[in-house]
Amino acid sequence: MGLLSFLILCPFAGAVLIALTPRSFNVLFRLIALLTTFLSFAAATWVFFAFHPGATHVQFEEFCPWVGALRIGWHLGVDGLNVALVFMAALVAFAAACCSWEIKERQKEFYLLLLVMTGGILGAFASLDLFFFYFFHELALVPTFIMIGVWGRGENRNYATFKMTIYLSLGALIALIGLIALYVAAGARTFDIPELTRDVAARPIAASAQHWIFPLLMFGFGILVSLWPFHTWAPLGYGAAPTPTAMLHAGVLKKFGLYGLLRIALPLLPEGAQRWLPVLALLCLGNLLYCGLVAIRQKNLNLLIGNSSVAHMGFVFLGIASLSLVGVTGAVVVMVAHGLLAALAFALSGYLQNQLGTLEMEQMGGLLRKLPFVGTLLALAMFAGCGLPGFANFAGEVMVLFGAWGGHTTVVVLAAWAALIVGAVYMLRAIRTVLHGPLPEKWSGVADAPHAWRKLPFALLLAGLLLFGCVPRLLTDRIQPAALTVVRAVNGTPAALMATTQLPR
Amino acid sequence: MTGIFPWLILFLPLLAAAGITLFALDHRAVSARLSIGAVVISFALSVALFVHGTRGETRFNWISLSDGAASWIVDIGLRLDPLSLMMLLVVTGVGSAIHIYSYGYMHDDPGVGRYFAGLSLFTFSMLGIVLATNFLMLFIFWELVGVSSWLLIGFWFERPAAADAAKKAFLTNRVGDFGFLLGIILVWAVLGTMDFGQLQKMMAANPALIGNSTIGIAGFLIFCGAAGKSAQFPLHVWLPDAMEGPTPVSALIHAATMVAAGVYMLCRVHFMLAADALEFIAWIGGITALLAALMAIQQNDIKRILAYSTLSQLGYMVMTVGLSGVGGNPSAAMFHLTTHAFFKALLFLGAGSVILALHHEQDIWKMGGLSKKMPVTFWTFMIATLALCGVPPFSGFFSKDEILATAQRTSPALFALGVAVAGLTTFYMFRLIFVAFTGPVKSQLPDHAHESPAVITLPLVALAVPSLLAGFWGIDRFYASQFGTGEAEAATGWVAQLTAPFAHAPGAAFGGLAAVVIGFLAAFALYWNKVQDPLPAMLGVVARWLRDRFYFDELYAKLIAATQDALATLADFVDRWLIAGLFVKGTHGSVELTGRLLRLVQTGNLQTYSLMFVAGVAVLLLFMLIR
If 0-12 CB within 10 Å is exposed, 13-18 middle and 19+ buried, where does residue A4 land? Predict the structure, then answer.
């Protein structure tokens, strides 16, 4: 069994084990979840660092035919697009398992669902087969709904669950229609993604078909990523979700739509991409600017983080729409960085929710005095969120802005405003109201993270952000060849780094 | 062996900051030793590099993207040339004095560890700006400086004023950085590189480039960054509020070094600033210098007076950069930056000594008679004041004279403005001296005041030496060698050096001196032995305008409320009521309504079904017949 199979099957094996364990062994569920996610994390770390940067071919490839007639197979592998995502996903999954101590009821079911979700996420990102790619995503999505519905918090968690379920199912359905149309239009004989890509490159899909299939994928995948104006499920859903679920969904599962665009929509439908990506470049302002402004007005910390998470997706959309090497590479960097950041932010707000019983910012204040560790990390997460150098987000965002400048100058100007100013306004307002100022008397009993074990998930996520922020080559060297392949597939011309504005004579 | 020195200079403070944060936050002595040790070693190494005369670059790659045709390459590199070497000495030298002073000043604060971690982080970031080899690296450290400033202004974060001031400083800087980043992107988009060395070669090889309109725009945008960091009009509002931070922080960051980063950056990229941009820069600097000097004469908080004075002096420096002209020599700005770093740090540290002695009272109208109680503080403060006013032979005389001489050569209007500001400077500084240090005691506080301990007075004395003598050390000629213009042979001997300004540009030198004398006489006439400020009665409403800083803060608050906050409210409304409300809930509602209506049809009653069946047939028949 290869490493990738191992890291996908570990959580599933854990889930089976939990299912077989009697309900009274509460401690065991948590141990199994921690152990299996840790094994996945260790394997993913190995894959990430053993991955040979600079090579264009798929590495750690595994293939095992399954349904011969339809050419569906267990095909796993990593290249620049997904190697860092798999690593990030495994890291967040382990952190989410660590943060699950807040769950006190029906632990067996919760940990079981958590592991199924983890396995599904890892499978979706590591699969190179269209069937498993989609199947694993759905497998991860279903537990999300159940977890929010059963273990969620807040008065309108039922509404949030329904809204999220309908939105995401709808998005997945539209994407599915797009995928089927794509399959039919390509006259494909296989579900194998690399093979399909080669076939289509040799015999492109008719331009007229591309023009209507691409928007199906763009909006279908877009809804999954909370593309404006299909974003209102996200802040609400994350606000109602239990902490580990919010971490896994906002951090990792959400990136599936973006990954789908890069892995399937762009290389297979270059003509459609050329026509529709300018629309995406405009819509991304809805995320960046509009949702940023909405975040300014939020009074609840979780809604603020949720809106900022929606806003950050705008950078990825812009990077993809830029169709330049720098922009697409930057988009993937932002995907990884935001995954770690969203997980960290939701983990911290979950900690606060547990300590305070509320996340209404008006009631908070001066918490840094009582929570030196958690408060400091929250401040760092906020600064990472407004693009402070040293965190991975800065590297990715600045690359997106540079990469998109040639093609979408006006959008970049507004995006820079959103990144540097709107983002800073709501992040700093949050720090000011939550952490700074005098401490209300009722919070004098609030306690900081008591021991290393509780601090571990926060520290791990922060370490990831800092590592990739200080040494971004760890990411960019790995991403670059794959990003170049995508960019070339769409632009067709070999030298399409970025449309540099020419110097006027 | 010297190859590793620049890296050590840069990274030792970062190591200290990381070490303190991880292991020594609660250990006051350990954290202080780590932080002070790092900056002192950096200073020693900088001196070694300076003496050795090292020049050149060293770098490693940070991000590199290339498809063969074009590339996006960012290096983290260190560049040693006269500009950065002298600036290294200033940052680490003044920094060392202030670090040591801080140990005395912050001794009783429970957050000493956090304080020193922030101070070390700041030193690291500032050194990164000084040593940067390319635009993006500069921008990275630029942002880090911003965040360390935020940390230190908001050090007493439980005080709402401090927390608000920190936020305001960061956000105002971000407005400048918005332009700065766009300028950097534009430079890269047009010229294909962000490396200072390569850019300079390009501009030198193709002199027509400087007239290019895109590069002109880039110059304006880059200046936005400098205007934010150096608190130039209209982004000047954050600096006075930043005085909410501990006094040593005000001395190091908000007077001597960080706020000078904008001026330093302009000198670093001076080769690509076009004539239009330079003229604009000169006027912004001039306006800032004048406005701030006016505001300073009606402030009553000792630190705020000094803060407005800093603004005004920064305006001088920026004005000089602008006046130096395309391909010119802005070394006068750097010279003034250097001397200003010495005497302004000294002024703030002296003010800190006073504040400590008076148990954190900062209102000068509650002081008085301190010159006898605190002789060391008073005399060093006096030296710094004379230097700031530009009295020969103090260091400030030489640097201010060069500025006025430059202005006299190029722009009569700005020369007149510069002389007026020199007069105002003397006026408000001697107002401070007469009210706080001499004259009658104005409250009980000064009665119990006594001189500060040696850990505080020694740095004062150490900074007094360069404040007095730095004019004679040839700092200006050292800077000038950076810009490759042939300077006249320097005068030798103390007397010759002192008389040289009067011989070279008598108009500037005598004009400046006359302004100082007038300013002093006015201050003497109004404030000698006074217990109340006579100016408000004389100036009436104008005095209130000056005291309330021309209402810039109120104006900006209204402006932000009318634009960004209004947009945010609108976006929130649309999100809540239109998208999530009308569209989403509307869809939800209409589907549900349809369901409820259709349910009414399912009565289970046979007669109803047959009636509807017949009605359906009738409609179909009618449809067919009409067709």
Answer: buried
